[in-house]
Amino acid sequence: MALLNRYVGRRVAAAGVVVSLLVLGLETPALAAPPSITSFTPTSGPADCVAVITGTAFTDFLAAQTDLEFVAGPTVVDAADFAVISATEIWATVPVLTPGTSYSIRITNHDGTNTSTGTFLSTTGGPGGCAPTIVSFNPTCGEAGTNVVMTGTNLLAPTLTGGEVRFNPYGASEVAIHKVPDASSPTYLSVIVPATAAFGPIRVMTFAATGGTAFSAVSFLGQPCHGDPAVHSRTVTLRLRRHFVARGVVSDDDGFAGCVAGVPVKVQRRVEGEWKTVRTTTTSPTGSYRRRIPDRAGRYRARAPRIDVNGGFEVCLRAISRVRTRS
Questions:
Q1: Tens digit of each residue's pLDDT, the chain (327 residues)
Q2: How far apart (Å, rounded) are the C-alpha atoms in residues 290 and 306?
């Protein structure tokens, strides 16, 4: 994709075209409508954030003459970089601006000038609305060379290409290669899995400032998409204290957080030959739980159900613990 703003002596080049037309006795093109800015997103962020600007008439017969600026009163700052993607879309890299100041965006080309009605708030110490996100990726498994397409938001780097994508363990060997053509956009990235990719979330970094990095909520399985899923064995304990307070811990031998954190736990009592759930609770991030239960003697158990995570490529097994109490 050509970046249409990268020209030296843009105005000189434009004037040269006009003079050439006059010398040749050719008519200059009819006056076209000036550009207009309809909206842009995000509306806040630090330097190196990429804003996607939408509007009309962004291209003309002298595209090299296009200028894009951030304006706050008398202060005018050129965009760090920008690309005229189409007549209705521009990608612009936010320059270094005064923190906490709101800037209008102004575009000028051969057909005229337009300034946005909305403003962009310059932030420091945080990403503002420019933080990248990974909503999903497909496939969720595969060996080296697999093409993975990620969807999300704010996925462009300051160079107006896709953000840097790394697979676990996130070292230099795990940097993914962007697939071309159609390697990137503000909402998707297409990358090739590196040879050393291991099981874990995918990371994308769009800018170096705080908040410019995001991890996928689901882990990528760095192996072919077939075969048995990874299975984690786990245990659940149950203790009944005075006043019938059920306490315990759901644990996993591999330390896999998906098997212990936020797990629904059923506390059940044996009634007429069947297990009846008397209370439910959920484990803490460390796997512990605590729940008051009806004050009745009997035989009790805690049950942590089987859980499929990461698209079914990881399985946390069911675990049951039993305890008998007396009145």
A1: 434 444 333 333 333 433 343 344 444 455 578 999 999 999 999 999 999 999 999 986 555 678 999 999 999 999 999 999 999 999 999 999 999 999 999 999 988 999 999 999 999 889 999 999 999 999 888 889 999 999 999 999 999 999 999 999 999 999 999 987 666 799 999 999 999 998 889 999 999 999 999 999 888 888 777 666 778 899 999 998 777 899 999 999 887 888 999 999 999 999 999 999 999 999 999 999 999 998 888 899 999 999 888 766 778 999 999 888 754
A2: 20
**Strands 177-178 and 188-192, bridge-based pairing:** antiparallel
CB atoms within 10 A of CB 193: 23
Domains defined for the chain, CATH in brackets: 10-122 (2.60.40.10), 145-220 (no CATH), 230-324 (2.60.40.10)
For residue 16, how many other CB atoms are within 10 A of its CB?
11
DSSP one-letter code for 171:
S
Listed residue (90, 121, 115) closest to 103, CA to CA: 121
CA-based nearest residue to 289, from 308, 262, 319? 262
For the entire predicted model, the pTM comes to 0.65
* DSSP letter string, 225-248: S-SPPEEE-EEE--EEETTTEEEE
In the 3-class helix/strand/coil scheme, how is 280-324 assigned residue by residue?
A: EEECCCCCEEEEECCCCCCEEEEEECCEEEHHHCEEECCEEEEEE
User: Hey, is 258 helix, strand or coil?
Assistant: helix
Q: Are 246 and 302 in contact (CB under 8 A)?
A: yes
Size (the chain), residues? 327
